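PROTEIN DESIGN WORKSHEET
SECTION A - STRUCTURE
LENGTH: 140
TOKENS:
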């Protein structure tokens, strides 16, 4: 009788341990991609990622000169691998006159591409005009 109790006890303990291990394996780590990222080479460009209810808003700001700044705006969600494929990106060029007044010109609203997040670094791949292809941005 004692042997049967030990076998049942062993079986119950094994089931409990397996359940805990399986439960922990199925929980995925939640990553908050929000923040300010700075381009690693020239350190002039930046990406701002803002969390919202159903994903993230992204704003890429890339100064071309003191008189001209390129902006890209898009929204999306990151998948389990840290990749955001986006569509509907709007590119705006802002120019400044000699008095500091800005003039905004929307160049397109149908941009596509992706952001890839790995180890606090975003890699930007822009499909529309290859503006940021493979540029790396470190979290500030």
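SECTION B - SEQUENCE
RESIDUE ASSIGNMENT:
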């Amino acid at each position: 009788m004692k042997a049967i109790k030990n076998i049942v006890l062993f079986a119950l303990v094994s089931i409990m341990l397996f359940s805990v291990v399986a439960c922990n394996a199925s929980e995925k780590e939640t990553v908050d991609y929000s923040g300010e990222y700075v381009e690693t080479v020239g350190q002039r460009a930046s990406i701002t990622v803002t969390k919202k209810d159903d994903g993230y808003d992204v704003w890429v700001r890339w100064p071309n000169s003191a008189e001209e700044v390129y902006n890209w705006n898009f929204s999306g969600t990151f998948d389990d691998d840290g990749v955001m494929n986006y569509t509907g990106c709007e590119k705006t060029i802002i120019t400044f006159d000699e008095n500091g007044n800005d003039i905004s010109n929307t160049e397109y609203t149908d941009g596509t591409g992706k952001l890839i997040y790995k180890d606090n670094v975003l890699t930007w791949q822009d499909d529309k005009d290859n503006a940021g292809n493979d540029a790396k941005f470190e979290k500030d």
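SECTION C - NOTES
The chain has one domain: 35-139.
Residues 16-27 have pLDDT under 50 and may be disordered.
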